[in-house]
């Protein structure tokens, strides 16, 4: 760990942890969506929208703290990148739920549940990792596992696309479902961006 002679603003750690905890809430709402009928989905979407707004508030709080802090716990560009990537995850998850409701999807294709399970696991790992930024310990397994999960998400996504284009669905339905599975894939990518940023920070601080 790099030795510092100056004090550091430590509230960032709590704010990153709160942002990651909110992402766990979002992943649970995604899981809830899987088992819900069409009549219950609008209410789930409302709760997801509220969680996304809470995520925006958390991100703005980090940026405000960054702009008002002379000394930061690690490089400013890494704080921006980490906060932005965490925010992206919530945005993508909220978009996926909203699209399911707006498109009035009766039944999600087989494989979407695997996408969401990967996201839920990545959310848990991210929430567990954020407090460790304070000490920069026990992080290596986190970013290795999230990268593995993202590779798994890529495979699931490719299989889903193959399924959507096998002729079972009409063209309009394919367009709707493809947009949903693509957004879920973007959420998986955003989890990897968070993990890569954490790795960058850990390397700089070592």
TrEMBL record:
InterPro entries recorded for this chain?
A: PhoU-like_sf, Put_Phosphate_transp_reg, UPF0111_domain
Pfam families found in the cross-reference section: PhoU_div
UniProt record similarity statement: Belongs to the UPF0111 family.
Name listed for the protein in its UniProt record: DUF47 family protein
The species this protein was found in: Streptomyces luteosporeus
């Amino acid at each position: 760990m790099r030795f510092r002679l100056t004090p550091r603003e430590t509230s960032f750690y709590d704010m990153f942890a709160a942002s990651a905890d909110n992402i766990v809430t979002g992943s649970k709402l995604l899981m809830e969506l899987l088992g819900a009928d069409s009549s219950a989905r609008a209410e789930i979407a409302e709760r997801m929208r509220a969680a996304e707004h809470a995520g925006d508030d958390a991100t703005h709080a980090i940026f405000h703290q960054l702009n008002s802090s002379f000394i930061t716990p690690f490089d400013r560009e890494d704080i921006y990148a980490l906060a932005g990537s965490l925010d992206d995850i919530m945005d993508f998850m909220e978009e996926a739920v909203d699209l399911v409701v707006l498109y009035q999807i009766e039944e999600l294709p087989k494989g979407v549940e695997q996408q969401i399970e990967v996201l839920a696991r990545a959310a848990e790992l991210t929430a567990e990792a954020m407090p460790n930024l304070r000490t920069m310990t026990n992080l290596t397994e986190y970013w290795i596992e999230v990268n593995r999960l993202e590779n798994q998400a890529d495979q699931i996504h490719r299989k889903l696309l193959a399924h959507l284009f096998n002729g079972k669905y009409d063209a309009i339905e394919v367009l709707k479902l493809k947009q949903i599975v693509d957004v879920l894939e973007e959420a998986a990518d955003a989890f990897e961006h968070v993990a890569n940023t954490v790795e960058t920070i850990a390397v700089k601080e070592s």
